[in-house]
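Reagents: none. Just compute today. Permease IIC component.
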Amino acid sequence: MSEKNGAFAKFEAVIQKTLVPIANKVDKQPHLTAIKKGMVVLTPVLLLGSMAAIFPSIPEFIKTVGVENWFAHYGYIFDLISKLSLGMIGLYAVLGISFFLSEHYKLYTVGSMLLSAIAFLLLALDVDKNGNIIPTYLDSKGLFTGIFVALISVEIYRFFTKHKLVIKMPEGVPDFVSSSFELITPTATIGVLFVIIRAIADNLSGGVLVPQIIMDALAPAIGGMDSFIVIYIVLVLRLVFWFFGIHSAVLSPIIAPIAVQYLSENIAAKSAGEPLTHVLTNGTLSAYANFTGSGVTIGLVIAMLISRSKRYKKVGAVALFPSLFGINEPVLFGVPIILNPILMLPFIFGGAFVGLLPMLLMHFGLLNYPIFDPPFVPVFMEGFLVGFDWRSIIVQVVQIILSFLLYMPFFKVLEKQELDRENSIAAEREKVISKEDEKLLEDLDF
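Predicted 3D structure written out:
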C-alpha cells in the first residue's frame, strides 16, 4: 500500500506541476473566459429554438381536427421563432462574447457589440441578384466565425483606445455622446479590414464565404467530436480536472461551441424531417455524463447509505438529495473523491464510461438523439427532456446500477479503513469513560 501511495504521490506531483498551472491559466485567460460566458448566455436562445422545433410535433400525438387546423393556419409562428433564435445564433454569440471581453477590458460594451456585429455581418451575409439578403451563415454554421470576429473586433477597439487613436470630445459632453464619437475611427478601420478580408476570400475561393471556409478548415476537429473514442477522452479529461480539484468548466471554451452547433443541427434536421446525427450536446453532458454529478457518483452515495460506518452513512444522507439535482460536491469533498487514490479509477475511467453509455445507445437507435437542453430540473426528468424519450428512465436506472457496482468494491476498502478508525476511537473512549458513565452523561439534562 505504501508503494502505491508513493506512486500516486509522484503522479499527483506531476499533475500539480503541469496540468494545474495550465488549467488555471486557461480559466483566467480573458478570451477563453469570454467564449465560455458567451456560450452560457445562449442557453435561453437554445431553449426557445428547441421548443419551436418540438411544438409542431403535437398534431402527431393529438389527432383532432381543431389541432390540425390550428397548426395549418398558425404553424408558421414556430418556424419564425426557430429562424429568429437558432437561425441567428451565430450573431447572438458575437454579441455575447464581445460583451464579456469588452467588459473585461473596461471598454464601451455597447460599442464593442456594435463593432463586432458589423464585422460579422460583413463576412456572413450575402445578397442574391435581386438584392435580397441571404442569411445562410447567421446560424450555427457561422458560430466559429462569430467567435473569431468578436475577439478580433474587440481587440482592434482596445488597440485604438489604448493608443489614443480615437476622437475625444471636450469635457462636459455627455458620456454616451463622447463614447459614440470614440467609435468612429475603429468602426471605419473594422469596416475596411473586414471588407478586404471578404474580398480576398472571395477571390481565392471562387465566391465561397468566409464562414464556409472556416467550417471546412475546422471540419476534421468538429467532426471528430462525433467519435465515441473522442467523447470518452473528453469525459475522462473533464473528470481528471475534477479529481485534482479543478472545475471542468475550463474545457467549456472548446466543448461548448461544438455542443451548441450539434444541438442546432439536430433541431434543424428534426424540423426538416431528416435523420439526427449528433449525440454530444450540453443536454447530454448534463443529463447523462453528469448524471447525479460528475463521475455518476450516485452508486457511491447508495453504498454510503448502507455502510456500517457512521461517518459515511452521514455523508451519504447529506449527499443524496443534492445528487438528485446533479450536485455532488458533498461527495467530491465529503468522502472525499478529490485526490483520493482509492477512488481515482472508478471516478475517472468508470464514471466516464457510465456517462458515455446513453450516447452509445443513441447510436444504436435505443434512445432518441438530443433535441433539447433542459433547464435545471431533477434527474430522470432531465434525461427525458433531452430527447423526449421515456426509455431514458430505464437507461438511467441502468446507470445507477452500474455506478453502484463500479464504486462498491473500491468503497469497501475505504469503509474498512474508516471502521478500523471508528473502532479505534471507540476503544480509546472506553478506556477513559465506561459505557455506564457514558449512558449516565447522555441522560443528564444540562
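DSSP finds 22 helices and two strands in the chain.
Action item: order primers for follow-up constructs.
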